[in-house]
Every structure is written in C-alpha cells, then in structure tokens.
C-alpha cells in the first residue's frame, strides 16, 4: 500500500482512527488462531457507518483489500488480513441501541461485547442464550459473522437462530437492510440467514437485531465424574434418547480437567478420566423431573459420582472452570492448537476413541473438551511450534481426526468457521460442485475479491 493512500485515510478519517506503525501492524496481523499471521498495511477503527463508507470508497479507488475485525477471538483465522490491505475494526461501534421488552428483541451495533449484552437484557428479566466461550471478549458482529455457538447451543440454538435483521455494507459501498423484527417474515429470499456465518467475506454488519426469550425461572447444575471417557460420551446420547434436552451438556477429559484445576483450583478431582457438566433450566417442576432422568442416565453409564451444585455460586464456579478450558490448556505448552469438529451424538464415543488412539500413536498431547450435547468437540493439542517434527505429527493427527469426523456424518467445524485453518478440508466435506457454487455466490457480492480475501476457499480465483 502506498504511503499516499495511508495519508488519504488519515486525511479523511483523522489520525486517531488510523493506525499504521509497525507495532500496530503486528498486533493486528493475527487473531486467536495459532500458526497464522499476515500483516495489514493499515488499521482503521470505525466509530460509525460514515467511517465504514469512507474506508470502502477509498479502498475502491486503489483496489485495496478490506478485512473486518472485532475483538480478534476467532479460531479459524477469519479476521487475519491474508492479502494485506486495511483491517477495519468495529469494536468502537459498541452501542446497545434498543432493548424492546414488549417485542422481545434487542438492537445493537457490531462492537457490543457478548457478555455485556447478556447483562443488559438479564437486568430486564430477559435472556439472550448464545454464549460462546469467549463471550467476555468477543463481539456480536464477530459472533454473527462466524455463527458462533456456545455452551447453551444444545437447548437454545446458536447465534444464527436469534438474528432477525442485519444492516450490511458491501464492498462497493452500498448498504442494504435485510429482515425485520417480525417473528414471521418470508418475503423473498432469506438473505438475513444467508449472511450469518459468511465470515466477513460477503458484507460488513453495522446494525443487528436479535431475538430475546424470557429468562428461565430456575436451573440445576450437575457434575458427573467418570473413570472412562467413553462412558461419559455414552451418557450424552443416553440423556437425549430419554427425551431430555439440558440447557448445557459439556464434556472435559482428564488432560483438560488437570489443566483447568492447575489454573482455577476449585477442587476438580484430578484422577477421573472425564467429567460432564450438565445443567437443566426452566420451570421448577420441569427441572425437577429432568433432574431425575439425568441422574438415571448417568448411573446407567458407569458413573463414579454425581454431584449437584448446592448454590448459584458453586454452579457459577463450575461454569467458569469450563469456560476457562482453553485458557488453562494454553498455559501448558508454548503453542495451543484448538480444533473444532462435530459428529452425531451417538458417534461421540467412537470419535473420542479415535482421538485417544491418534494421541497415543502420534506421541502428542491432546486435551478434548466441548459441547458434547450437540456433538461439538474441541480436540486441543498442546505443543511447541518450534519443534517441527512434533508439529508435523500434530498436522497428521488432525488430518485423521477430520477425516473420521466426515466419515461419521459430521462436520469439520461446528462453530469456529472455515477461515484459513479449515479451507483445505472443505472440499473433502462438501465436494467440488458446492465449492464452485460458493465461489459464484461470493463473486456476486464481491466481484473483485477484495472483502476478506483468502478465506473459506483454499485458493481465490
């Protein structure tokens, strides 16, 4: 990028909104994805729609790529500027515009932090269920771009299930509003749902309307401990088969448990092979009925012990421990490679057995945790990128894991997106015709390929 173009950015937007020093460029060259880094030529912090429009107009004049970024918590390289250009940061667009308690919706800008949205609506006895593990940092715009999941996805669904309307800018500077606040809206193509999960490759969100639901009246939290991770995995489908859908059904293996306990010191037992963190919520009578079924399902699968949280504080401690799983694992070795697969729930035991086998054969260390209730697992390798031989074995192990997930009728990503990290596996999963169709759709919205280029597809045409 020419220095004169950076000068134009500063002239149009002001020096406080444009960053281009070497330390700044390095800071915005990566997200939370390991082994992935590309430096931008400039960073622009957008404070409003006018800033975004100016960036798009100036970038069009010089044929410069634009990559949108929120808090940078992505785990597939989705906000990394593969082809340089401008990184457009939307975290300063962080207003909660309206909470409509009468119509159960909330309107926000893309930079609103997920946990702050939770607090704001829960203060009004309302509930926004999607809760990605990074919710204390991640932004709603990024959640929508990646169609983020979370711990409550089993019962309540994921981000895309709550998006009602989107204001979107396209690479040519045009702006469109899709969707309404209506619960039913089938006018024309459902472009709102299409835009969710497009990973910033189609448009830039500036205003988002989300559905809310009433806050559950009560909840009950269970900690189930197992001497064999396969028994824990079997319990998941046993609970679902008995027609109970917990709000949360999370799995942690022994490696993860020990790393979390090292970090949190809340008294998790170190000698168990796995644990399930289970929560039922809703009307008190229903929760009590479901608790009986959950307990029976756990006991039917060789559980060691089952504990029920005695207070809201104890429940929160357990969930905090689960949410810090990645942070805790990341402390163990210099490089942490977190992956994301999903398989049908009855296939979880087979998938866990395969992960264990691959770990032993490859002589690597993998801690697996995840949203087992919806089949979403995160096999996380603790390694060191400086050890090239080990990194080679790690990649070979993940090749086997992804191939197995596909063969079981699963997917290469349940919530992290394709980005850079999964692009080489996408053709194996969807086939060449589907890739061709996706390319055509991308070209309709972004014919010059300048909006977040290098993502999803292995190579850009």
Q: What does this 3D model show about the protein?
A:
It contains 16 helices and 19 strands. With 461 residues, the protein is α+β, with helices and mostly antiparallel strands. It folds into three domains: 3-89, Uridine Diphospho-n-acetylenolpyruvylglucosamine Reductase, domain 2, CATH 3.30.43.10; 96-214, Uridine Diphospho-n-acetylenolpyruvylglucosamine Reductase, domain 3; 218-407, FAD-linked oxidases, C-terminal domain (Vanillyl-alcohol Oxidase, Chain A, domain 3, 3-Layer(aba) Sandwich), CATH 3.40.462. The longest helix has 20 residues, at 388-407. The chain is globular, with a radius of gyration of 22 Å.
Give me some keywords for this one.
single chain; 461 residues; alpha+beta; Uridine Diphospho-n-acetylenolpyruvylglucosamine Reductase, domain 2; Uridine Diphospho-n-acetylenolpyruvylglucosamine Reductase, domain 3; Vanillyl-alcohol Oxidase, Chain A, domain 3; eight-stranded antiparallel beta sheet; 19 strands; 21% strand
């Amino acid at each position: 990028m020419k220095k004169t173009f950076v000068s134009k950015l500063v002239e149009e937007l002001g020096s406080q909104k444009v960053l281009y020093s070497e330390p700044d460029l390095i800071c915005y060259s990566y997200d939370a994805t390991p082994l992935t880094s590309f430096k931008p030529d400039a960073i622009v912090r957008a404070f409003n729609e006018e800033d975004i429009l100016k960036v798009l107009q100036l970038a069009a004049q010089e044929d410069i790529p634009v990559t949108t970024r929120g808090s940078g918590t992505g785990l597939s390289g989705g906000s990394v500027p593969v082809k340089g250009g401008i990184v457009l940061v939307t975290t300063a667009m962080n207003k909660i515009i309206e909470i409509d308690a009468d119509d159960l919706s909330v309107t926000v800008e893309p930079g609103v932090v997920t946990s702050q949205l939770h607090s704001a609506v829960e203060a009004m006895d309302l509930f926004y269920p999607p809760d990605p593990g990074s919710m204390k940092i991640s932004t709603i715009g990024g959640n929508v771009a990646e169609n983020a999941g979370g711990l409550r996805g089993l019962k309540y669904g994921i981000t895309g299930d709550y998006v009602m309307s989107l204001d979107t800018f396209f690479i040519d500077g045009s702006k469109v509003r899709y969707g309404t606040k209506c619960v039913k809206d089938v006018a024309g193509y459902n472009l709102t749902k299409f835009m969710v999960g497009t990973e910033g490759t189609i448009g830039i969100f500036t205003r988002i309307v989300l559905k809310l639901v009433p806050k559950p009246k009560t909840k009950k939290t269970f900690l189930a401990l197992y001497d064999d991770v396969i028994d824990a995995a079997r319990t998941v489908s046993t609970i679902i088969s008995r027609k109970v859908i917990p709000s949360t059904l999370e799995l942690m293996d022994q490696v993860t448990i020990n790393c979390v306990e090292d970090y949190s010191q809340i008294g998790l037992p170190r000698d168990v092979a796995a644990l399930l963190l289970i929560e039922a919520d809703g009307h008190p009578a229903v929760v009590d009925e479901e608790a009986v079924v959950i307990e029976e399902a756990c006991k039917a699968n060789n559980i060691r012990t089952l504990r029920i949280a005695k207070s809201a504080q104890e429940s929160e401690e357990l969930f905090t421990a689960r949410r810090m799983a990645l942070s805790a694992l990341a402390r163990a070795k210099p490089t942490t490679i977190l992956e994301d697969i999903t398989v049908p729930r009855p296939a979880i035991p087979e998938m866990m057995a395969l992960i264990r086998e691959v770990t032993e054969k490859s002589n690597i260390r993998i801690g697996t945790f995840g949203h087992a209730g919806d089949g979403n697992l995160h096999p996380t390798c603790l390694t060191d990128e400086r050890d090239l031989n080990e990194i080679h074995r790690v990649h070979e192990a993940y090749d086997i894991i992804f191939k197995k997930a596909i063969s079981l009728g699963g997917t290469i990503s349940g919530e992290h997106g394709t980005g850079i990290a999964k692009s080489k596996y996408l053709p194996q999963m969807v086939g060449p015709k589907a890739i061709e169709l996706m390319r055509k759709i991308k070209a309709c919205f972004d014919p010059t390929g300048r909006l977040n280029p290098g993502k999803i597809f292995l190579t850009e045409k």
